Amino acid sequence: xxxxxxxxxxxxxxxxxxxxxxxxxxxxxxxxxxxxxxxxxxxxxxxxxxxxxxxxxxxxxxxxxxxxxxxxxxxxxxxxxxxxxxxxxxxxxxxxxxxxxxxxxxxxxxxxxxxxxxxxxxxxxxxxxxxxxxxxxxxxxxxxxxxxxxxxxxxxxxxxxxxxxxxxxxxxxxxxxxxxxxxxxxxxxxxxxxxxxxxxxxxxxxxxxxxxxxxxxxxxxxxxxxxxxxx
Amino acid sequence: xxxxxxxxxxxxxxxxxxxxxxxxxxxxxxxxxxxxxxxxxxxxxxxxxxxxxxxxxxxxxxxxxxxxxxxxxxxxxxxxxxxxxxxxxxxxxxxxxxxxxxxxxxxxxxxxxxxxxxxxxxxxxxxxxxxxxxxxxxxxxxxxxxxxxxxxxxxxxxxxxxxxxxxxxxxxxxxxxxxxxxxxxxxxxxxxxxxxxxxxxxxxxxxxxxxxxxxxxxxxxxxxxxxxxxx
DNA sequence: ACGCAGCAGATTGTTGACAACTATAGGAGC
DNA sequence: GCTCCTATAGTTGTCAACAATCTGCTGCGT
Lengths: 231, 231
Description:
mainly alpha, Arc Repressor Mutant, subunit A, 9 helices, Four Helix Bundle (Hemerythrin (Met), subunit A), homodimer, three-stranded antiparallel beta sheet, 2 domains, disordered C terminus, DNA-binding
C-alpha cells in the first residue's frame, strides 16, 4: 500500500459544499434517503450544522452528478431509478471498466493485481461472515480499485458516480442477495485475468458479470407501471 | 428529424443555476475564459445579472464537471489541461463513444446514419467555406449525435462533458488546423461503418481518429515545464 | 353533492450584508 | 541592502431576512 500522507495535508482545503455533498451522497448510497424522498433544505441544513447557502451549493453538485432531481419551486428529490436506468448504469460501467482494464493491462499489472487481491480478501471475509452490506462495500471497492489502478482521473470520476447509482439500486431492493460464491469466483477470475494480462478473458467475464447483475436486479424490481390493466 | 416540441415546454423549468452554468460552460468552451484565468464572483454575477448565490451554485456544478478548480479562500480558476489531461480525455472519449456505437449498431442503424449524415453535411459546408470554428462545431455535433443516437443518458452526459474539455484544448491552441479532407474522410468512414453495421471497422477507425487527434494536439501544446534549463 | 375561487401555510429562490481569509505593498529593524 | 513584520485592500465563505411560488384547505355558489 501507499504511504499515508493524510497528516501532512491542510485541514480545511476541501470546501464546505464538497463535504456536505459527500455526506448526502453516502446517505443516498446507503439508502438512508430512499429514491423519491424530498430533501427539505432547512431540515438538512439544520441537521448538518450549516446554513442553506452551502447546502444549496452541495445540492447543485449532486444534481450535476445525476443523483438528485430538481423541480423548480417544488423541491429536490432523490432520483428514482427504473429498469432502463439500471440497464444504462451497467452499460456505462461496462464501457468505463473495460477501458480501465485495458489501460491496466498495458501498465503495471502486478501492482494492480495486488490491489485487487486486497479487495478480494475483504470480499471473502464478508462472505464468510455473512455480512451482506460489507460484501457490497467490498464489491464496490474492488471495482473502484480496478479503475483507480488505470491512472485515468476521468474514468475514475465516472466510475465513482456510477458506483453510487449501483448502490442506490441495491439499497432500494433491500439486499438482493446475490449468491456469494459465484460473485467471489467471478471477481477472482477478473483478478486473474489482470494478473495474466488476458484481455479477452477479462472483457468476457466482465460483460457476463454485468449482464448477470442487470437481470438479477431488474427481476427483483417492482414493475414500473405496476397496474394490471389491459393496456 | 424529430418534432420540435419546444413551444409546449414550460418557460422557466430550468433553474437559474443551470442557465448560468450553461452560459459559463460555453464561454469556457469557446475560449472566452482561457485556462488559468480566475473567475471573480462579483464581476461575473454583475455581468450575468444575477446575485452571487445562484452564481456560486452554478460554479459548484462546473467544479463537479471538472471544468473549474476551486481553491478555498482564493478563488475559482479555469482548469488548465496538460498533455496527460489531453490523453485522458481522449481515452475516456474512446471508451464512451465505442460503447455508444455498439449500442447504435444493435439498434436502428438507419436512423443513426441519417443523423450522422446531417452532421457530415455541416462539416463539408464548413470545410468548403474554410470556417475553422464552424468545422469544430460540426465535428462536435457529429460525435454528440453519435452518442445521443445510442439512447443512453449516461453516455450522453459523459460525452457532453468530455466534448467541452476537447473544445477547451482546441481553443487554447488557437485553431490547430487539422487537415480538413482527412478529417472529413475519417468521419465519413465512421458514418459508413454505422450504416453497414461494421463494428470492427468502426472501432478501428475511431481509435485511429482519437490517437491522431491526441498526437496532433500534444505536439502543438506548449511544453509543461517549458524552461530550457539543464534539468 | 359537486366544483371552483380564494386563502393560509410552508417551501424554495434571491438578495444584501457581515465575517474570515489571502495577497500585496510599505516601512521598520538588522 | 536585505529581511521580516504590519496594515490594507480585495477576495471568498457564510448567514439571516425578504420575495415569489406551490400545495392543501375552507367556504361559497350552483
